[in-house]
Design brief:
The chain has 252 residues and is an alpha/beta fold. Helix content is 45%, strand content 16%.
Amino acid sequence: MTGIFDKLLEIKSERGGCFMVLLDPDRVGEDDLLATAEKAEDCEVDALLVGSSLAIKGNFHEAVKKIKGATSLPVIIFPGAHSQISPYADAVLFTALLSGRNPQYLIDEQLKGAPVVKKFGLESIPTAYLLIESGKYTSVQYMSNSLPIPSDKHDIVSAYALTAKYFGMKAVFLEAGSGAARTVPETLISEVAAYADIPLIVGGGIRTPEEVAGKIKSGASFVIVGNHFEKSGHGKLLEFARAAHIRESIEV
């Protein structure tokens, strides 16, 4: 049976790229959270990610359950800790912070989370998580106690991505961080994509459809936006999603 990640890769092949929206129950009220989930399906969004740095507001698992009930889109957990792995999701980004030196996010949380993923029968998407310097001290940098890779060190990022591929991981997440001052540079994306030949997920600081299109054209397979919609609402979801679907845009 074809898994969710394989289906997303098929969408990427057909459309040129995939667009995902990150929902954070800590940052958005329940009504807005569910409204975005419902709107996403009509706005050509390809999947929803759900995750939070702390999950201190309300019941995280209940929020995931309600989001899943509001949409037929794949709901993928992007966990800040093993406690956020929910039985109500379809899959989990099983990330390892390869760019960091903190064992908690390199192996400890994964060790605790693996039996939970198995228990709930979730699809695991093994993903290398790389923090990229973005001109701002971000929440993920603070929470993980990890230094980001300088954005001009293309060789280091490329070597990490290739390492992830040889480890057997399915994707590499280039993360600038929520609300980043600068996005992951397109020159970096193109070089890493060419060198490592592994699907790239890019997120952090993306605020316009043009930036989405730029990341996809540079070699990203998936673009994630969350913080922008938390602040501006979901009015431009369709524009952002269509910007990722560059092959369809060209054909139209």
